[in-house]
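Long-time lurker, first post.

We've been arguing in lab meeting about whether zinc ion would sit comfortably in this protein at all. Half the group thinks yes, half thinks no, and nobody has a model to point at. So I'm putting the question to the forum: if I give you the sequence and the SMILES, can you give me back a predicted structure of the complex? Inputs are below. Any interpretation is welcome too.
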Amino acid sequence: MANRPTQIQRTPNALPARDDGIVFTSLCGSNPKDIGGNCLLVDLYGTKSDGTSEHARILIDNGKYGFNANADIRYRKGNGKSVEGEVEGAFVDIRPWLVDPKTGVTPSGEPKIDAILITHAHQDHLPGPAYLAKMMQVEHQDLVIPPIYSSSYTAEQMKELSVFKRLPEELRDAVTPVVVKPGSAIPDLGESISVKMQPVNHTPGARRVLMSTPAGSWLHTADTKSDPTQPFREPGATMSFGGIPDLKVISADSTSAGKTGPQPSETDIGRTLSRIIKDNGDKTVVVGVLGTNMGRVATVVRAALSEGRTPVLDGSSLRTNAKSVENAGWSWEETCGIERRDIPDRRRVQALLDDGSLKLSDLVVITTGSFAQPNTGLDLIASGRHPFVTAGADVVVVNSQGKIPNVVESVTAMESKIAAAGALMINPEKSVKLGYGPLHRSGHYGEEELKAAAGDMDPDVREQVTFVPVHGGPDLIAKNVEAAHVAGFKNILDLPVNGVEITMDRDGVRESGEPHLPNMFVAVQTSQDWRYPRWDFVPLKAVPSLAESLTPVDPEPEASLALGR
Ligand SMILES: [Zn+2]
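Top reply:
Settle the argument with this. Predicted structure of the protein with zinc ion, as C-alpha cells:
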C-alpha cells in the first residue's frame, strides 16, 4: 500500500490565471548556515492567439541542502520502521506537484510541474530528482516525474550519481535528463510562453534560464561568472545582460558578489601554477582541486605539460568527471594537448614509478580534497596514507581552491599537517605572499563582473529592470544587493529568506503572498557497506541540526523594494 505523499501547504497564487506574467518562488537556497538546496518554483502565464489563457509550471534546480551534515540519525517512521544511518543531505519535496497516475491529479490539488530544468552539475543544484526517485522506490509510491532538461554534461553527471545507479531501470529513465541544445526552447510549455536554457561560464555545460511571457521576460542567471579563458567553455557562453528583449526581472545567483576588483582568469591561474612547478623542478608537485572543477583540472594539465611534467589524474571522481566532459563532446586533446586516456591514473602511475620509467619529480599529481573531504587525495597525503606521495621536503602541495566558510577549520588542519610533515604547502593566500600569483577564483561573479554584465544593457532598461538576489544567507544576499547598486540597478528586491513569492506582470514586480517554506525530506544512507549503498528517507524536521539552518534569522522578515540609495 503506497504511502500518501506529504502535502505542502502553499498559499494560492495571487495572480489570476488570465493575467500574463510570472510568479517565482525560491523554495530553498537562502539559508543562514549553508548555501545548498537551490530550488525555484516558477509559474508562467500567457495568452494564446485565440485569446484563451495558458499556464506552465517549471522547477529550476533541485539541489542538496546540508552538505557537511555528517550526522548520524535514528528515527522511527510512522509505519514503525526504524531508520538508522548517516545524513546525506536534504531536498525540497516536490511530490505535491507530481501527478498520481491513479487519480490523474496531484496529491495537493495544485497544478503539476510540467518540466524540471537543471542548470548545472553542482550538488546544490543537481541531484534532487535522483533522490526523489529513490524515495518513491523505497516508499512504494507511484507518481509521474515530469521531463527533466539539462545540458549534455549535466545529464552525464546525473547518471554518475551513486543514488542514480542504484535505481531500477524505469526510474533511471524517468530521471535521465533530456539534453537540450544551448539556447533552444523547452518543448510543450505553451504557445505564448517560452523558456530557454542559455550557456554560461561556470561548470562545463552550465546554463542560465530565460523565461518569457507576453508581459515580459525574466532572466535567472543561476551560477555564473565571466571568464573568456575558462577551459571547456561553450561557444556563446556569456554573463552579459545586454540585448535581452522585454527584460523585466533578473534573479541573480552569486555567493561571491562581495568580491571587489578584478578576479583572476584561468589563464592567470595557469601562469601561477607554471611558476610553482618551474621553481620546484626537483620536487613532486601535487595540486588539490575540487572533483567537479574540470576547468581547473584542464588548467593544471596544461601547466604540467608546459613545464615538461606528466600530469596524473589521482582519484576516481576526477577520472569519472573527465570522461563526462568527453562524453558531453569536448576534446581533452584540443583543450589541453593530451588525450584523456594518455593521462595516467593512480594505478598506472604506480606501475610506471615501479618499473622506473617515471620518477616522482616528473609528476604533477592532480588530486581531490581541496575542502579536506575524508579519503580524498589531500586527506590521504595529510594522514600519511597516500599510496605514492609521502609529504616531506621533496614534495610541494598546492591547494588551488579558496576556502568556503563551513570548511575553514578542517582545511586549515589538513594543510597544517602537510606542512608539519616537511612539505611546502601552498594555498591561495600563500601563493600571493610568495609572489607566484593568484591560485583561485570563484565560480561566481564578483562586483566587477556584475557591473560589466549590466554595463551591456541599455541604461533605460537597467533602470527599469528589477534585480533579485536569490542565493545565500542574509549576509550573502546583502553583498549581492550592494553589488547590484554598484552595477547601476535601481530596483532591487532584497529578500534574504526562502519561500517569498514574487510576481511580475504588466503592473510591475512585487512580493505577493506570505513567505512559506516547502516540506523537505532528508536522505539517509543506511548501509554500512559503501559498495552497496542503501537509502531511507525522513522528514527534515526530524533532523533539528539541519532544520535549524533553514529558519530565517529574523522570524518576521520584511521584504522591501529598495528604490535607489
Ligand atoms: Zn555551481
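For your lab meeting: The pocket of zinc ion is lined by residues 120, 122, 202, 223, 443 (CB under 6 Å). The chain has two domains: 21-260+443-554, 266-433. Whichever side wins, do check it experimentally.
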